[in-house]
Structures are given as C-alpha cells and as structure tokens.
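quick one: flavin-adenine dinucleotide bound model?
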Amino acid sequence: MTGPVFDIAIIGGGVNGCSIARDAAGRGASVVLFEQGDLASATSSASTKLIHGGLRYLEHYKFRLVREALAEREVMWRAAPHIVWPLRFVLPHHAGLRPAWLLRLGLFLYDHLGGRRLLPATRSLDLGRDVAGGALKPHFTRAFEYSDCWVEDSRLVVLNARDAADHGATILPRTKVVAARRQAGHWLVTSQDRDGAEATVRVRTLVNAAGPWVADVLNGIVSSTRPAAVRLVQGSHIVVPRLFEHDRCYIFQNADGRIIFAIPYEGDLTLIGTTDKDYEGDPAEVAASADEIAYLCTAASDYFRVPITPDQVVWTYSGVRPLYDDGASKAQEATRDYVLTLDVPEGQAPMLSVFGGKITTSRRLAEAAVEKLSAAVPALRAPPWTADARLPGGDFPVGGFEALVEKIIAPRPWLPRKLARRLARAYGTRAETLLEGAAAMADLGQVFGADLTEREVSWLMAQEWALSPQDVLFRRSKLGLRFSDEQGRALADYMAARAARTPAMSLQAEPR
Ligand SMILES: Cc1cc2nc3c(=O)[nH]c(=O)nc-3n(C[C@H](O)[C@H](O)[C@H](O)COP(=O)(O)OP(=O)(O)OC[C@H]3O[C@@H](n4cnc5c(N)ncnc54)[C@H](O)[C@@H]3O)c2cc1C
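yep, here:
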C-alpha cells in the first residue's frame, strides 16, 4: 500500500496514550493516536484526581513506585499549575487501627522519599482545637496532616493531546482501531471513524494503551498469543453536598484495611471514594452499585459527626483500573505500578503494551515507553524533555494563579470574577486567547447554562476535540452538575449543528 507511514500508532486516548503521544511527538517522531470514544472517556476521567505518592503503598513496600510518584507531584504542579494544585490531607488516628507510631513513620518516609521542595511537610493536629476536628466525631482527638496534589484528570489528558497535536501529532478521537497486522517490517492499522468509514495506515511501531481493553486489543485486534496479565479492578466515587467548610481533605482508614478520601469538590460539594473490587464485564458499562454507595456512606459515617446516607448522593462515577496482574489475592493489594511489555519478533515491527500505572506517573510512564521504542524509531533517541516543559496554558508560576485571574480581569471589567476564575482554572494563560476580541459579555454569545458560553463551547470543539454535551459538561468541565435537562438539550442542538458543519477528522494529514 502507499500513503503516509507514521513512526508510532497509539491505541487509546487516556492519560497514558496521550502522554506517550506528547512525549514522542515532542522528540520529533510522527505520531497518530486513535481513541474509540472521547479523550479520557474511560478510566482517566474516573480517578480520585490525586497526584499522590500513595501513602498506603508503603505498607506493601512499593518504594520505587512511591518515590517516583512523590517526585512527580511538584513536576506536574509546575507543568500545569492551572489544573494541578496542592492539598493538605488530615489523617485521623483511629484507636482500633494502625498505631500512631506507624502513621508517623509512614509520613516521615513520605516527606523524605520524593524530593519535596515546595509542598509543606507533615504536622500533628490536635483535633480538639483544630477546625478540621469540628466535622468529626469527638472521639477522634489526634491527626496528622500531610501534602499531596489535586489534578483535573480529564483535562490533563486533553492538554497532553493538545500539546501532542501542537507538536505535529494526529489525534483521532471517536476512531476505533478494528484490526492491526504486521507486514514487511511495519504494522498495518485499520480504524473506523464515527461515520463508519474505514482507513488503513502503515506505521513502524504500535502502542497498546487501551487501558481496560488492553487484553481485547492483544487478543482480538492484533491476535497475539501472549497471555495478557491484566486485572480489572472497579473503583467508585460518590458526590454529596459539602460536609465541611475548610479546604483540607480527609483520609480515613477503614477496619477492612482500605482507606477512603473525603475531598472538597467543585465549591459546594464533597467527593468520597473509592472502592476496590474485581470487575468482570464490559468496562464501558461500569457504574457505581448500590452496595458500593452504601459502603462509602458507612465508611465516611464512621468518622463524620453527621451520618451520610445514600439519599444525599447527588452524583456517582465509576472506573476500571487496568492493573498489572501480579497475583495479589486482594484487589486493593494488586500493584499500582506500571509494566511495559515489548513484543518484537525477529525482523518484525514492535508492539508495546501498557499495563497499570497511575495518572500521577503517566509522564514517567511515557518516558519509559519512548525509551523502549527508541531502537525502532531513531527520532525517539532525542533527550527527554517533558520534566521541565509546561502543558498548554500552564506557562505561569506555581504560586501565580491569583495574579493570572487579575491579569485576565484587568482589561475586561465586564467579565464576572467567578467566570474569570473558572476560565483561568480550565485554560490557564490560554483563557486570554479564548476571550480575544470580546469587549462585553454579549460578545461571548449565547449562555447555555451555569456560565458556559457559546465562545467557550466553540473553543472546546475547535481546540479540544469536544463533540457531545457529555464531553463539555463532564470531562472538559464539571458544569453538568449545574445544568438542567433543558439546558443540556439546547447545548446538544448547538453542538450537533456545529459538528455537522465540520467533517470528521481523518488520516489525510501527512506525517512529518
Ligand atoms: C477509581 C479509580 C481511582 C483512581 N485514582 C487515582 C488517583 O487518585 N491518582 C492517580 O494517579 N491514579 C488514579 N487512578 C488510576 C488512573 O486513573 C489510571 O491508571 C489511568 O487513568 C489509566 O489510564 P490509561 O490511559 O491506561 O487508560 P484509559 O484512561 O482507560 O484509556 C484507555 C483508552 O483506550 C481506548 N480504547 C480501547 N480500545 C480501543 C480501540 N480498539 N481503539 C481506540 N481506542 C481504544 C478507550 O476508549 C480508553 O479511552 C484511579 C483509577 C480508578 C479506577
């Protein structure tokens, strides 16, 4: 066949696929990425949204993972200070569970393993005096407080894809890879777009970053005979009206050895999660079960003064962790570390498969993946570059968010402060480009609901591959929590009309 030859084809537009696309494109490789749904439509929008070392993994002696993850906190914060920010976690001492000396030892390691420079260290709290004690049952008298970071997970994915595209990658959401076979030192990858049109492209290397579908790709799409060592573990979250007034989070230990988080969410809500249970079935169908909702309510109610009941739940979401199967007996003990397997039969094109991993370590995973493919793709031998690079909109100092909001508002006194803050959080310095030329609110066009304007929706469709209301309301923002059905329908009509004027993205673009 004739036509473009790409260096790398990536199956999967989650955090791992998009991070690999960004890293490889930035080193000068030609990259095409296929995502069967929206970017971040699977696991990468269903996380607890923490950039964290994982205090709990210390108990399983996962020092390599914890050290790497801890160090990534400040790297990610610097790369994208609009969507990543520090959080403080309150860990109450529970008389029947882990002793205080063990918690102190774990947190000492946590503070010192990972090259912490900016994040504040651990401290002890007297819950009788500290405001964090006010929401808790009175028998919790002591706690430790430590640092980790928050990340807007699905925006991190989209920004990686945006940066990859800015470096020349071809990003194809709503395009499913349906077949891939080796031929004459290449892969022939066949995909189907949202209109059902098929296209085949020739590539030098293939990356299977299909998350919970990693085994389906291995067994169904490339017909590999290698066993796929993947363990699917479901995790669900609930969202309830705000349970406490301060801006810190709680991490609670449960009697079953698990931990759950309670995190301030979207201003007036609290996010509680997560569960850990083996999952069978179609990952696209995963949803929080009544048992999981009850479990999370009970676990949180063990700590909070005011009980939490399922009828308070305003939203739930659920995801499937595609963990590497290390033979652990319990789902919560299966390793969260990533494993990359390279399959290169003599004289044939390589395929790299991604198992496990975390949002936190996605940038490091991408570096490791690129390194493994560099024997087959000379461009990838360029030095690593992402540790000091900014993601789109992240080119402002880590402590500079409020200054950015002021910079956006100063020439636009007509712009409501709340909207300016939301745009700065979502788009960072690119919020100014989004607002360019507007001299009044009316110039931003129709307001669909909450403070979502036509200008922003057009930007999301043109710059960030949004196509449906779900993409805008639950992945590129969480405005869906504020939208009525009627407002959602008006947005759907607008987006459908606009999409009809834009052809589906295709493989016509020539790789460099
Ligand atoms: C409940 C829960 C909580 C978590 N909390 C955290 C946390 O707080 N911090 C943290 O660091 N990590 C966390 N994680 C882990 C993290 O979310 C995952 O490790 C990460 O999102 C996995 O990303 P991925 O790219 O491998 O998979 P995915 O995001 O699932 O992406 C794979 C993509 O491949 C696509 N795909 C599959 N087959 C095809 C095909 N044939 N053609 C085209 N596309 C295809 C899918 O549609 C999907 O979008 C959590 C995970 C869960 C489930």
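The chain has three domains: 5-43+155-229+336-388, 85-150+231-325, 401-500.
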